[in-house]
Sequence to fold (668 residues):
Amino acid sequence: MGTLDDERAYVERCAAGLRRMLDGARDNVIVGETVAGDRYSAERLGRHLKSLAKELSEEPDGPPFFGRLDFGHGSAEHGGRAYHIGRRHITGEHGGPPVVIDWRAPVSRAFYRASARDPQGVALRRRFGWSGTTLTGFEDERLDRGEEGESRILAAEIERPRVGPMRDIVATIQPEQDDLVRAELDTSICVQGAPGTGKTAVGLHRAAYLLYAHRRRLERAGVLVLGPNRTFLGYVSAVLPTLGEMDVEQTTLERLLTTVPVTAADGEAAAVVKHDARMAEVLRLALYGRIVKPVEPVVVADGSARWRVREDELRRIVDGARRASLPYGVGRERVRAQVVASITRQAEARGRTANAAWTRAVARAVTPSLDAVWPAAKPEEVLYEVLRGPAAEVARAPGGSVLTEAEWAAITWPRPPRSVRSARWTAADLVLLDEVAAMIERPRGYGHVIVDEAQDLSPMECRAVARRAEHGSLTVLGDLAQGTTPWAATSWQDRMALLGKPDGRVIALTTGFRVPGAVVELANTLLAALGADVPATRSYRADGRLRLTRVTDLGEGVAAAVREAYAYEGSIGVIATDAAVEPLTSAISNHGLDVGGRLSVVPASAAKGLEYDHVIVAEPAAIAGAERRGLNRLYVALTRAVSRLDVVHARPLPPQLTRPGGRPVDAR
Ligand SMILES: Nc1ncnc2c1ncn2[C@@H]1O[C@H](COP(=O)(O)OP(=O)(O)OP(=O)(O)O)[C@@H](O)[C@H]1O
Fold:
């Protein structure tokens, strides 16, 4: 079974194994660059080996394993064997069995899933405790004897103060999370989870798992992770590389859709219309409205000959291409090809040989006729026509009746730019431009797309994501209670349909690993007022502290709370309305306290998905009152704390925030 000394000796074997892998990878870099069949594979192989060599040599000296499974003799497949499980596979000596098994391998699954009730052949599960790279101890569960208990190592990992960016959770993935991490590649899933239930962690580990299980397919097709903003990505983007996965594209939807600079902003009324699913129809009609009925034949001069495609034939060609429901750009090229084919037939009937150069020349020569019936289109031009105004005039154009007059008035430019080149685009316009671009030419898709904070996606944004997962699958992560956009989701079924996966399973995660129990209780009192139909959650954490402090001067009060927070280790986040960030930053600095380092002052609008060890929420009533879904915003702010939450307020607290049981919160 192994004593601590045995296990320490095993750590040495792992180190030797890693050295062997590193030497092997280095040798292979040299060989790989010369042996691969073609340039593309040589490059790929070379890149792969180089990154493996780099990874292995730069591997932070993390623990080589975190767990061990000893199978009982009764297990058919693994009878009597023991396996160490770690973040990465470590090869054994002389082609022998690996010394460490990757956490994603099928056999590792039992580490996360086996229980006394269902031991899955496991006699003993061992969890290791480390201090840096020193193995400090282990905990055993003799599942074959029905032993299974609360793990101290697990609790310590979950309750550890947070510093720096988010870490992986491979050592402590919970069974309900493991189910989602290992869901089949072809299944799209939607995870509804209260704050801190590990949605983001699950999404990232699912990406790593899928890449392991379907490496070939996904390396080619690509995996995309979409987060709500850059700060969030900064917080989570190190997790996949530490799991050895460098090739996942992690970005925000806005960045993914940015084809033109955003230099203007919409008011809420305009944004709401622009994000409505009906805009897809408006844009479709505007784009296809550019196609006009042919009124002239196509005539191509060719030396002494003149080739002609009659008006009625051209009309048939155009109608046929329209009916084929091809992307607009492909339709245009089909019309061109059919016109050229018709001319080729005529020419050949007259004894002309149609070689490639001649065909190309004819194809060029028909462009003016093609432009007249099926003009080339750029997304900006189409959107310019839609937003150009005046509203009443645009409303009469194709697609006019899809929106009401008031809606047209909301989105058309009050002072239209002179030309498309001088148009100033907004963030919502990016989504519309993407819609048009995709109607002209299908965008690149991915094998798997993971979208976080998905409750905030608008119907038009969902369509943009759906297009990228059309031939792949989706992991949708979110919490209906945390929706803060005007178009936030109220039901996952609707969103999954908009995301193109109406049959995607919706699964709830209900155990919170971030927020301490007392804080969850307080935040939960808001739920009734949020109108979101979400299951109740419980916190895994019995530790933590909640304090409500009424002050006369908010800046002073917050600075005092910060000073106290500095006495503990871990990150500190002050969360306030966007407008209060500056004055509070000054107030904190004026008290001689450093902003930056482990203290951040965060606008409530950017706090989503983040967590701090100690959170100070400044003036909840102001956060709740700052926007239409201000109470949802407050719910997000209150649920960022890992160890301690201070609520500091000069104004009365919002009445929706009550003590469990319904008593209003007494500030003092
Ligand atoms: N099984 C686990 N073991 C250890 N830590 C975990 C586990 N699951 C989640 N955590 C930790 O709990 C915290 C919250 O996780 P995460 O950010 O993924 O939750 P979330 O559901 O996305 O939250 P939110 O809705 O607030 O964005 C993180 O620090 C994460 O590492």
Q: What stands out?
A: The radius of gyration is 30 Å. The pocket of adenosine-5'-triphosphate is lined by residues 157-158, 166, 169, 172-174, 177, 193, 195-201, 479, 482, 513-514, 609, 611, 639 (CB under 6 Å). The mean pLDDT is 90. The CA atoms of residues 318 and 537 lie 58 Å apart.
